[in-house]
Task: inverse folding
C-alpha cells in the first residue's frame, strides 16, 4: 500500500497504560487534526530502553518493534510513527533505527498537532479560565522542542493564561527517580513556582511527571492536568483522570478489578496507587 | 518530524558494539560534557577532575573499567542533553549523550561496575493497568 502522510501509527509506549484516558484523548486530537490513526503500545511494542542490563533481549525487542512498524508502512501505508514517550522517541532515533533498517519516519505528537493548529484551533470553542504553570524538562529538546510545542498549543486556548515553570534536568520525572533527591527537588521547585506565580493549575507534558504530580491535585487550591486534558477541555470534551482519582484514594470499580485479577491488582497496582506523595503535606 | 538515520548494523546490539569505540575515538576527554551536566551537582561530583572523568567515559565505551567518579556519573544520566551541545566535537559526529549511554551499558554488562537494576514486575503491572481500563477491543488492537 502506498504511503500517505495522513495515515500514522500512534506509538504510546509502555507506561502510558496507566493513563488510558490520555491515550484516547491523544487519538482524538490526532483524528481531529486529520490523521487516520492506528494505535499500538505496551510490552509487545517495547523499545527496549529500560533493559540496558539485558542487551541481547533489548536488541531483540527493538528489532521486533521496528519490524512491526515496517510492516505497518508496507502493508497499511502508515509511513509515520507518532510517539508520545520521549524515551521511546530518543531510543528509536539514536539506537533502534541505526541498528535496524527502519522504513518509516518519526514525529512526536506535539509536532503533528502544532503543525495542524489551523485545524484544531477552530475546535477550541470553550474558554478554559485557568492560570497554568507548565512543568518542563530540558532533556527532550535535543530531538523535539516539546516545551515550545505544548506552550504554542495551550496559548491558543481562550481564557488560559500560561506561565512557564522552571526547566528541570532530565527528559521526564522518571529519569530523576534514580538520582537521590533529584525527583523531589524537581517536584518541589514546580510546586513552589506554582504557588509563587499564583496559578490554579500545573500542566504536565509527559506521563511520568503526571504520575508523580497528580497526587498533589487540590493541594494549595492547585489542580494538576496534562496538556491533552486541557486541550480536550477547550473542545468541550470530558477529561476524566482515573489515575488521579486512584492516587487520591479512590479505587477502580469491582468489576474492573475482577477483570484484571484481584490478587494481581493487590500485589502490583495497589502499592503504587497508595504510595506516599513525592512531597509531604507540609512541604 | 524526522527521517530516521539509515541502518549501520544488523541489530541494535551490533550497532552499540560498533558505536562505542567509534564515539570514544572522537572524544578528546576535554570534560565539557561533564561540566555541563546538571546531575554532577546532585551527585556531589563538582570537585572531580572533568578530564579524568571523561577519560573514564572513553574507557568504558571501549569496555575497559573506569574510575568510580565516571561510573557514578554515567549511572546517573537522566538524558538532560546539555552534554550534546556542550561537546566541541559535536560537529565531528560525536553525540555525547549516546556516548554516555553506551558507557553506562558497558558499566552494567562488560566491566560490571554498575549493578543491574531491573523491575520484573513492570510488564505484569502494566498489563493489570491495561485490563483495569481498556475495552476488549482496545486490548485486542492496541497491545
Result:
Amino acid at each position: 500500500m502506498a504511503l500517505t502522510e495522513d495515515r500514522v501509527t500512534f506509538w504510546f509506549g509502555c507506561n502510558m497504560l496507566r493513563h488510558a484516558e490520555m491515550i484516547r484523548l491523544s487519538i482524538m486530537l490526532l483524528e481531529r487534526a486529520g490523521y487516520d490513526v492506528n494505535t499500538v503500545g505496551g510490552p509487545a511494542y517495547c523499545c527496549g530502553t529500560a533493559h540496558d542490563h539485558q542487551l541481547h533481549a533489548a536488541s531483540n525487542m527493538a528489532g521486533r518493534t521496528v519490524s512491526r512498524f515496517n510492516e505497518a508502512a508496507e502493508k497499511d501505508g502508515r509511513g509515520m510513527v507518532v510517539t508520545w514517550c520521549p524515551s521511546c522517541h530518543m531510543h528509536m532515533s539514536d539506537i533502534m533505527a541505526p541498528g535496524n533498517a527502519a522504513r518509516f519516519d518519526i514525529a512526536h505528537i506535539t509536532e503533528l498537532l502544532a503543525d495542524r493548529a489551523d485545524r484544531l484551533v477552530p475546535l477550541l470553542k470553550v474558554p478554559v479560565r485557568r492560570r497554568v504553570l507548565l512543568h518542563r524538562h530540558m532533556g527532550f529538546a535535543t530531538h523535539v522542542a516539546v516545551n515550545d510545542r505544548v506552550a504554542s498549543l495551550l496559548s491558543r486556548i481562550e481564557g488560559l493564561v500560561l506561565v512557564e515553570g522552571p526547566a528541570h534536568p532530565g527528559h521526564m520525572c522518571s529519569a530523576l527517580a534514580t538520582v537521590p533527591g533529584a525527583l523531589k527537588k524537581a517536584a518541589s521547585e514546580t510546586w513552589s513556582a506554582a504557588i509563587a506565580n499564583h496559578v490554579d493549575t500545573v500542566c504536565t507534558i509527559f506521563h511520568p511527571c503526571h504520575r508523580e504530580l497528580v497526587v498533589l491535585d487540590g493541594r494549595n487550591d492547585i489542580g494538576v492536568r496534562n496538556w491533552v486534558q486541557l486541550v480536550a477541555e477547550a473542545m468541550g470534551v470530558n477529561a476524566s483522570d482515573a489515575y488521579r482519582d486512584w492516587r487520591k484514594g479512590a479505587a477502580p470499580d469491582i468489576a474492573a478489578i475482577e477483570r484484571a485479577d484481584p490478587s494481581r491488582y493487590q500485589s502490583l497496582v495497589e502499592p503504587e496507587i497508595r504510595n506516599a506523595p513525592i512531597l509531604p503535606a507540609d512541604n | 518530524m524526522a527521517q530516521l538515520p539509515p541502518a549501520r548494523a544488523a541489530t541494535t546490539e551490533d550497532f552499540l558494539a560498533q558505536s562505542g569505540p567509534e564515539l570514544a575515538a572522537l572524544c578528546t576527554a576535554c570534560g565539557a560534557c561533564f561540566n555541563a551536566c546538571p546531575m554532577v551537582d546532585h551527585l556531589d561530583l563538582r570537585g572531580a577532575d572533568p578530564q579524568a572523568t571523561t577519560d573514564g567515559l572513553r574507557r568504558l565505551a571501549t569496555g575497559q573499567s573506569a574510575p568510580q567518579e565516571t561510573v557514578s556519573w554515567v549511572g546517573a544520566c537522566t538524558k538532560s542533553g546539555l552534554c550534546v551541545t556542550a561537546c566541541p566535537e559535536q560537529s565531528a559526529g560525536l553525540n555525547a549523550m549516546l556516548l554516555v549511554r553506551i558507557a553506562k551499558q558497558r558499566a552494567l554488562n562488560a566491566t560490571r561496575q554498575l549493578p543491574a537494576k531491573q523491575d520484573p514486575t513492570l510488564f505484569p503491572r502494566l498489563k493489570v493497568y491495561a485490563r483495569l481500563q481498556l475495552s476488549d477491543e482496545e486490548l485486542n488492537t492496541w497491545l
Q: What stands out?
A: The beta strands of chain A are 4-11, 36-40, 78-83, 105-108, 131-137, 161-168, 201-204, 223-226. The first helix of chain A runs from residue 20 to 32. Chain A has a mean pLDDT of 94.
